[in-house]
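Action item from last week, closing it out:
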Amino acid sequence: MKKLLFSLLLSGIFLSVSAQEYENDTIYKKDTVAVMILQRMSDVIGDLTSVSFSLSTSNDVDNYEYGVIKQFGRDEVYMVGPDKMLVHAYGYKGHRGYWYNGETITYYSFDENNYAIVPAPDNIIATIDSVHNNYGIDFPAADFFYPTFTADVLDYFDDVIFLGKKMVDSEECFHILATNEDMSAQFWIANDAFNLPKKFVLTYKNKGNKQYESTFSNWNLNPDLPNSVFNFLPPPQAAEIFLMPK
């Protein structure tokens, strides 16, 4: 599969080949080129031992006075597999940090100078799931780091289609669309040696076509990150608090 995709990328020739699935006489399309690109991206991410990147986000949310408004944020992410992660999050909730060292994950509010420490599983993916399920905390773009990313996309969406090559911030990307009755997802994946994600947009059809958008930048592959980066040291006068389960 990798050799075939590599030859397609080099030649610039994309075949209009798709696998079709049938359910209740409805035809669903799973474009094999789109699937190969997604899997190539997932394989590259899975082979990394460490990574850092920036993520800019926008999110449509309901406002009781003005209707739908956009909220913007930025995340700086550092990870060492399988059990180290640091996230600095900036946005409408203020400046927050999350330190995961393989045993605990610490939440810290820079604005309020308080923190909470909770036990965590022994790997990043399980920790992301645990914190989300127990405390309702989301880590933007975490789905891209799941080993089952491509299979999850194919399972959740009815149609997965390759839409050609498009420019995003002066960078040529592969454009992929995945849709079902409730949601559509667009992925732009860099057309270069690494095929890393550049941008994605989620559109919630069942929620008035509200959108969530994220753009990746500043990818640093396999950086040498010291373990001390992932251990939280409480600042002076910081107050310890308790996270309330959702």
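Closing note: The chain has one domain: 2-240.
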